[in-house]
Design brief:
This protein has a single domain (3-145), classed as Alpha-Beta Complex (Sufe protein. Chain: A), CATH 3.90.1010.10. Helices cover 45% and strands 17% of the residues. It is built from four helices and three strands; from the N terminus they run αβββααα. A hairpin with a 6-residue loop joins strand 1 (32-37) and strand 2 (44-52).
Length: 146
């Protein structure tokens, strides 16, 4: 597939997650929540996780922001469900490396997340893409500190 077609496909995936976000809404059974915002652009996320024996069994988000921010939150919640806290932290680190344009492990198994790799070409959008993942990291770290 040509680079141009691949970019178009990735844009479609991002817009699908933005217009039809997965796991958006309150999570009544959550036992970990965190609020984070990007003061530069105003994006905000309220992340809700349900952790059972260090495994993320459910994840959802509410908030508002640009298409990149909200699509990333949708993709993140889909990809981390069923993973341990440590696996989710690893995923967040890999995601951060990817959107900064650094070499990273293949993240095909993370679902649609790879569609956001093109964000590396737009440094101002990196914070938008990583907001949900930073919220995930902070929520897990704070939970471990309890």
């Amino acid at each position: 597939m040509t680079s141009r077609k691949l970019d178009g496909l990735y844009r479609q995936v991002i817009m699908d997650h933005y217009k039809n976000p997965r796991n958006k809404g309150e999570l009544a059974e959550s036992n970990v929540t965190i609020d984070l915002n990007n003061p530069t652009c105003g994006d905000e996320i309220h992340l809700h996780l349900k952790l059972d024996d260090n495994v993320i069994t459910a994840a959802s988000f509410t908030g508002s922001g640009c298409s990149i921010s909200m699509a990333s939150a949708s993709m993140m919640t889909e990809s981390v469900i069923g993973h341990t806290e440590d696996e989710a932290i690893h995923m967040a680190h890999q995601f951060s490396e990817m959107v900064q344009g650094h070499d990273h492990e293949t993240i095909d198994e993370y679902g649609d997340v790879e569609a956001l790799a093109g964000v590396a070409k737009f440094p101002a959008r990196i914070k938008c893409a990583t907001l949900a993942w930073k919220a995930l990291e902070r929520a897990i770290y704070e939970e471990k500190m309890r």
